[in-house]
Every structure is written in structure tokens, then in C-alpha cells.
Design goal:
This protein is an alpha/beta fold. The protein has 24 helices and 21 strands. The strands form 6 sheets. Strands 2-1-5-4-3 form a 5-stranded antiparallel β-sheet. A 5-stranded antiparallel β-sheet has the order 7-6-10-9-8. A 5-stranded parallel β-sheet has the order 12-15-18-11-19.
């Protein structure tokens, strides 16, 4: 015992509970070791100090004020909780101070909360498993019933109280619950007959770690007929899902097929054959042709005939999107990538075309900076969203189209040579309308039939005079121009016959001027028409190669150029060939 320690001090310091005593002024007179440990304050540093300077939130000062004891009061101290009993100290009938005895209950409090949660969970599970209409039973590892729903007990001719505590074989007919509790092997969708009724049941083992401690059984179908009804509903749902998938494929996919491409002439037939062969592969296709020849129609048809026809068909016109927006359209962006970016981000065309086809129209108008990024996507099959931090894998088929001369653009440095070779895998040339005059009548009939279907009116017919004018027109706008002319003629015609007066005046004047140069029916007119047709057929058969076309016509190449220029056929010297 130290010189300043009394036997009472030793007793107080040996206690596991903290003890603090103060006088009527709040000065600490007693402060044992347990109090020092719990409060994190040295005993010597606390004695003689005001209690509130050591424990700012102490409730012991309230006892000085009221003179009333306080028992079982929890008080937080830092991250821990103590339970305190406080009492006033009287001397000769006057309040002389107060004393507090407290102990750490942090772990006890945590255990209490866990116990409360466990009890609440157990009550909830019991209510769910034993709910009205539910047929279920739980057994322990020895096959003794621990829980059974009221409905199931009633069906088995007993009560919950009468079933719990008995072996499951004494309660349920033909049961295997005790077997599952022993083997730990689940039995799903088993048929069981109870009281002459066929049921479908599931039996599941209950485990604590790796040890089987019991089993849970549930009647899934109370009659076999319920299972049959469910199977019928599932079949119906599967049929509906299949139907909706087909509808979605139709909405997301290509709208046209090769059957939509009208024409039986040599030029268009050759182009269709090449496109059909290309559709059997997954290679990149480059569609080349003048504006209005139907490049998008071919792109749709190639997708619809290919192995990716169930996937999406996504298109983007590179010439129609401003250069500053083209990157976000193609690659998409993450939320916050730039001012005005949509919340949650937005996928680009590459991601939308996954497992399908991406059609890039007018690829010759794509900026050089975007060409480099497109090349990386095609090579790496990965796409990075704007503002994103990771790459996304994309699996798609690319179809590109252009009305421009890519070779000239490569020579001028306006189109990357490496990208040109990457997309020019299967080039397909779509012939202009003037090279397929034999298809003009069929195209006109198809357009008139479609217009009649859209308007609900009777299909209108071309007069012989109008058909002759249409045949002589050069059709710089190709099939699209023909469609627009016929749509105007149908709108302007009050009757069923379309006449020359129903087409644009400028077109009619140009046709009349051409006919004045050669009298209709004259030998010169017939000869000129035959010569022009022969040249167009030779060019089509040779794929546009002038030397081969001249050889087919048995004339010199220079002579061919002269005749092409005389008949206004594109590709002759002095005219830019598209």
C-alpha cells in the first residue's frame, strides 16, 4: 500500500466498474482505475478537477441539482456506451456530493441488438413460411417436425400443436423429409400422394456451414392439374415472346430485302448477284453509286439476307451530321462528358449495332479525324465512349456507301488510304438509272403501286407519250428522281392516266428539245437509240471498264469515248466520273 493509498482506494481500484465521486461543487474526490480506463483519463489528472472538464456530458451533476438517484442510465463515451447508477451523498442530512458507478455495455448492447434482429427475422420467416394457403413443413436433423403451416397440418388431419415434436413420418403420408435431412440431397418437383391426392413437392436440405441440420419441404402444386395449367400458360407465353421478338426484329432490322429491288436488266441483276454473295459473309461491303441509285436499299437487303438478320440494322449518314456531333453519335458518351450530356450517358451507333449491322452512308464525307477513330474500331473491335474510362467490345458487320470517288479523295489526302483498303473489301457498284433503261417501266409500275397503297386510291397508269418522255430523260437523280416525278404526276393528275402535262415543265421542255434534233421514227433516231443502248450494255457487262467495253463493241477505245460524249453517257473524257 502506497503512502497516499488507503484500503478503500485499493478496494475501489480492484473493481471492474468505474467509480466517480464528487463534492457538492462538482470537484472529483474519487476516480478509480476502471473509470480512468473507460474515460481515457489518468487518475492523477482527474482528481481535484471539475467533473464537467473531464466528462462534459456527465449526468452526475443532475443528481447534485435534484438530489434524486438515477439508475440504469446509458451514457455514450466516445464510441462506447456505459450504463451508470448515480446516487446523492448526504452528510448530517445535507447534500454533500454524488457518486456514480458505471460499466461498459458496448458489447452487451451489440449482442442485444443482434438478438432482437434474429428474433424479428425468425418471426418474419415463420409468418412467411406458415402463411395462409402455404403448405410447408420443417424438420430437424432427426426428422422431427419443428415447423408446419396451419393449412398443411389441417390437410394432413392434424394441427400445428399436434404435429410439432413428432417424427415427420407420423404426420405426413409417404414423406421423404427425414431422408433429405439425413442425405442432404435436394428433391425437386417430386410427385407425392397424400390422403389419395397427387401433389408436386420440393424437399430442400437446411445447412449450417457444411453440416445438414434439417430439411424444408413445400407443396409446389396442390394438384397435378395445376402443373398442367402452368405448362399450358408457359407454352402460350413462349409463343407470345417469340412473336414479340419477331416484331422487334422487324422494327429494329432491315425494312427491305432483295425482293424489294425492282429490275431484271443485266446491270441491276449483276449488282444483286454480287450483293447476295456478299450477304453470305461477314465481310465489310462498300456500296458505290451515284446519289439516288438505291445504295441504302442494297444495304438493307444484304443485312436481311445475312446471318445477322435477327440483330439491329443501324444507319448513320456521315454527311448529314455536323462534324462536332459525329463522334458522340458514333461512339456515345458518359454522363457529364460535356455540357448538356444526357443523364446516364448515351450509347453510340457502334454499341446500338452490336450483333447486327452498321450502315455508314456517304462515308466519303467523314472528317479525317473521325476516319482514324473508325479505323481503330474496325481493327480492335472496341469502342470508347466520350468521357469514359474503359473500352467496350463491339461485334458488328459494317456496310459503307459513297457517291464520291474515294480513289481521288485518297490521292488528294482527304480520305485515309488505310481506311479505304479496310472498307473496300467487297465493292459493289450500283448502276445509275440511265444505264438500265430496260428497268424504267418496271420501276415506274412498282412506284405507282406503292403510291396507290399509301393513298388508298386506284393505281394510275402511264400513257405511252409519258413513258416515251421518261425513257429519253437522263435521270441525273436516278431512281429517287423517278420516284419524285411520279409522285408529283399522281398528285397533279385528276384521272387514272398520267400524261406529259403532269410532269415538271422543265423536264417536258428538255424532252421536246431532244426530240427536235431527231424526228421520231426516223432512221437517225432509231440508229442513235440503238447505238446508245449498245454502249450502255457493253459498259455494264464490262463493269465500267472502257477498254473492255470497246473490245466488246469491236471499236477503238477513242471511238468509244467520242460516241459516249455524243450520247451524253457519263465517263467520257472531260466529265468527272462518280
Amino acid at each position: 500500500m502506497g503512502p497516499d493509498e488507503t484500503f478503500l482506494d485499493l478496494i475501489l481500484d480492484s473493481m471492474a466498474s468505474g467509480v466517480i465521486a464528487i463534492d457538492k461543487d462538482g470537484t472529483i474526490l474519487v476516480f478509480n482505475k476502471a473509470a480512468a480506463r473507460l474515460l481515457g483519463v489518468g487518475k492523477k489528472d482527474a482528481l481535484g478537477k471539475n467533473l464537467l472538464s473531464i466528462v462534459p456530458n456527465s449526468g452526475l451533476v443532475n443528481v447534485l441539482r435534484t438530489g434524486e438517484p438515477e439508475t440504469g442510465r446509458p451514457q455514450p463515451i466516445g464510441t462506447r456506451t456505459v450504463l451508470a447508477n448515480r446516487a446523492p451523498v448526504f452528510r448530517k442530512g445535507e447534500l454533500a456530493g454524488a457518486v456514480s458507478v458505471f460499466q461498459d455495455i458496448t458489447e452487451m448492447e451489440m449482442m442485444s441488438r443482434e438478438l432482437d434482429s434474429t428474433r424479428a427475422l425468425a418471426r418474419t420467416l415463420e409468418e412467411v413460411l406458415s402463411g395462409a394457403g402455404e403448405w410447408m413443413v420443417v424438420v430437424d436433423g432427426n426428422g422431427i417436425v419443428t415447423t408446419i403451416s396451419e393449412e398443411y397440418a389441417k390437410f394432413n388431419g392434424t394441427t400445428v400443436a399436434g404435429a410439432v415434436g413428432r417424427h415427420v413420418t407420423e404426420v405426413i403420408e409417404n414423406t421423404r423429409m427425414h431422408v433429405v435431412a439425413k442425405t442432404g440431397i435436394a428433391e425437386i418437383g417430386e410427385r407425392q400422394t397424400i390422403r389419395g391426392k397427387a401433389l408436386i413437392v420440393n424437399r430442400l436440405p437446411l445447412r449450417d456451414g457444411g453440416r445438414v441440420i434439417g430439411a424444408y419441404g413445400r407443396v409446389v402444386f396442390k394438384t397435378v392439374e395445376q402443373l398442367r395449367e402452368l405448362a399450358t400458360k408457359m407454352n402460350l407465353l413462349e409463343s407470345k415472346v417469340k412473336y414479340y421478338e419477331e416484331e422487334l426484329t422487324h422494327l429494329r432490322g432491315a425494312r427491305y430485302t432483295f425482293g424489294s429491288i425492282v429490275g431484271a436488266g443485266a446491270a441491276i441483276t449483276a449488282a444483286k448477284a454480287e450483293a447476295e454473295r456478299a450477304s453470305r459473309t461477314d465481310s465489310t461491303v462498300l456500296l458505290r453509286g451515284e446519289t439516288g441509285t438505291g445504295k441504302e436499299l442494297f444495304a438493307h437487303a444484304i443485312h436481311a439476307a445475312g446471318s445477322r438478320r435477327a440483330g439491329p440494322f443501324i444507319k448513320l449518314n456521315c454527311a448529314a451530321v455536323p462534324a462536332e456531333l459525329l463522334e458522340s453519335e458514333l461512339f456515345g458518351y458518359e454522363e457529364g462528358a460535356f455540357t448538356g450530356a444526357r443523364k446516364g450517358g448515351k450509347p453510340g451507333k457502334f454499341e446500338l449495332a452490336a450483333d447486327g449491322t452498321l450502315f455508314l452512308d456517304e462515308i466519303g464525307d467523314m472528317p479525317l479525324a473521325m476516319q482514324a477513330k473508325l479505323l481503330r474500331v474496325l481493327q480492335e473491335k472496341e469502342v470508347d465512349r466520350l468521357g469514359g474510362t474503359g473500352s467496350r467490345r463491339v461485334d458488328l458487320r459494317l456496310i459503307a456507301a459513297t457517291s464520291r470517288n474515294l480513289e481521288e479523295l485518297v490521292g488528294q489526302g482527304k480520305f485515309r488510304a488505310d481506311l479505304y483498303y479496310r472498307i473496300n473489301v467487297i465493292p459493289i457498284r450500283i448502276p445509275p438509272l440511265r444505264e438500265r433503261p430496260e428497268d424504267l417501266g418496271a420501276l415506274a409500275e412498282a412506284f405507282l403501286a406503292r403510291l396507290a397503297s399509301e393513298t388508298g386510291e386506284r393505281k394510275k397508269r402511264l400513257s405511252a407519250e409519258l413513258l416515251e418522255i421518261l425513257g429519253a430523260h437522263p435521270w441525273q437523280g436516278n431512281v429517287r428522281e423517278l420516284q419524285n416525278v411520279l409522285e408529283r404526276a399522281v398528285a397533279m393528275s385528276p384521272g387514272e392516266i398520267l400524261l406529259p402535262e403532269h410532269i415538271p415543265t422543265l423536264m417536258l421542255r428538255a424532252s421536246q428539245g431532244a426530240r427536235k434534233e431527231s424526228t421520231p421514227g426516223s432512221l437517225a433516231s432509231v440508229k442513235a437509240g440503238a447505238e446508245r443502248s449498245a454502249i450502255l450494255s457493253a459498259l455494264s457487262a464490262s463493269g465500267g471498264n472502257k477498254t473492255k467495253a470497246a473490245a466488246l463493241l469491236l471499236i477503238h477505245r477513242v471511238k468509244l469515248y467520242e460516241k459516249m460524249k455524243r450520247h451524253g453517257i457519263p465517263g467520257s473524257p472531260g466529265k468527272k466520273q462518280m
